[in-house]
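We include the pair:
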Amino acid sequence: MIPIWLKWALLISASGAMGGLIAATLYAVRLAFEQVPDFKKDAVEWKSFQNTCKRIQSPWFFVGKALVGIGGAFAAILGGIWIGKISFDTSTENILVMISLSIVAGTVAHKLVPGIGRRLEQDLLKGQINNASEAANEAREIAGQAKEDNLRVKDYFESMSFAETALGRSSAFDIDPAIEHLKAIQGEYPFDRVLHIYLGRLYRRKGDWDNAIHVLKKYIDNSNSKDNPDDNIQRKINIADAYYNIACYHALKAKEMSQKSLKDEVYRLEQETIVLLKQAFEGNPANKDASIEDSDLEFVSEILETEFGLKHAKN
C-alpha cells in the first residue's frame, strides 16, 4: 500500500509539472505572435528568432519548465502549511484545491520561487521569522492572481498582434494606436526584447528617432537589472542587439540631419554610432555580419570600413 505522504507528493508533483508545461506552452504560443524577421533586412533579429525557435523545440525545454513547475508547486504548498492555511484532509474538495493551487503555482513558478526565496533568505538572516511567514503567504497571493495573469497574457497577445499588423502595412494609419497599445503594457514586460523592438520600430515609422532610441535605452537599463530572469549569455546578446538597433537609428537620424546641413549634429551622431556599434559587436559578433548588408547603416558605411574594417554592400 502506498503511504499517504507519497500519494500527496505524487499529486503535487504531477500538478506542478502540468503547470510548468502550461507555462512552456504559453511561451511557445507567445512566440508564434512574433513577426518572423526578414534575413536580408534584419539578420540579427532573424538569427535570434531562429535560436529561440530551436530552444523551444528541444524536449529539455519542456522538461525544465516541468521541473520548475514542480518546485513552484511544493513552494506554494509548503508555504501554505507553514502559515496553517493548507491541510492534508483527503476530502474531494481539499484534493481539488491542492491540485488547482499546485497547477497555478507551477504555471507562475518562474515568478514564485525566486521571489519567495529571496524574501525568506533576507528575513531569516535578520531573524524576522514573522516576516518570513508573511513571505511564505505570498505564495498563495501570487497563485490567486492566476486569473489576472491570464487577462494580462490576452492583452499582451492582442497588443503585439496589433503592432505587428501596423508594421506590416504600407500606410501609417495604425501606427499611433499601435504605439499606445504597446505603451500600455510596456511596464508589465520590462525585459521583453520583442516588445521594445516593435515599439522602437513603430516610432521609426513616424521618423521619431528620439523616442525610438529612448525605448531601447530603457530596455537596456531594465535588462541590466538584477531582476532580469534571463541568463547572462542571453542578456548579453539581447543588450548588444538593442545597441545595434540604437546605432541604426543614430545613422538614420544623421542622414536626416545631413539633408538639413546640420554638420555638427551629424558629426555628433556619427561619433555616437561608433561607440554603439562597438558595444553591439562586442556583445554579439553576429551583428558584424548583419551590418554589412543593413541598409540602415548605409549612410555610415565609411565609418564601418575605417573603424571596423567592414565593407558595406553598397560599396
